[in-house]
Protein: Transglycosylase SLT domain-containing protein
Amino acid sequence: MSVSFIRRIASPKKVLTTAAVAAATAGMALAAAPAQAAPTSASSAKAIAHKMIPDAAQFNAFSKIVEHESGWNPTATNSSSGAYGLVQALPGSKMASAGSDWKTNPATQIKWGLDYMNSRYGSPVKAWNFWQTNHWY
Structure:
């Protein structure tokens, strides 16, 4: 039975299920997403940051800022200011200096945010100290 025939008689969900079963039977694997796709879950973004910021105190400070700013959501957008991403860059396009995938890649956003905190405040810990006083950084 051909896939085109199945498409004509079955719903899209059934077609995908049938194709997956046929591929599995033939010894093929269907990938859900490309391996290079950027992770978007909070735990994935946090794990990336932990690898990029090995010092516990600096990571904890960075994490507290990101938790308050975006809840670790790499697509968080502030509706009133337009600030974007994990670190709420304003404008978000500033993060392009860290990579062209700044809109979707948590690692790019973390790199930019870490560079920003280090250059403006000296470290994530110092940025967190400022945030605690001002509720922004």
Observations:
- The two ends are 61 Å apart (CA to CA).
- The helical segments are 3-9, 12-25, 42-52, 56-70, 106-121, 124-134.
- DSSP finds six helices and no strands in the chain.
